[in-house]
Amino acid sequence: MIHDSLLIHDNLDDLKAVPVTSVRWFPQTVSGWGWDADGVPLVEWGAAQLSRIGLTIPVLFDGLFGPMLFAQDEVLGDLDRIGLFDIEATDKFRACAMERIWGVALHHAGYELRSSSLQGQMTDFYGHYRWHRVEKVHLDRQ
Question: Any idea where the domains of the chain sit in the sequence?
Fold first, then answer.
């Protein structure tokens, strides 16, 4: 599951051996989710969506940048059974919250993002990341 602004520079067949591979991940808590256009904390919308599918926000979990990942069918099946794909992000702000919601869902399903991440921990949005395998292109954002 990738965005059109991710360029693939390498054969990624080795990713088939691991359940889930993130492009980037970031440590996240219940705070720091950001706000929508009206100044409402995104964690409020996110917590309501997670509650609707029976999940709670753990004290600490890993967020999923993008959310972009490479995953085995089993992982996607687990996320479907949880109800993740019933959550609709209807604007850019909620799409940002989905980076955290995906992380929470993966956490609850028993998957982790750190060990197989292609670019490692997200330290800033643009940053200097390993790009020999995949490269995130930022157009009209700088």
Answer: 6-136
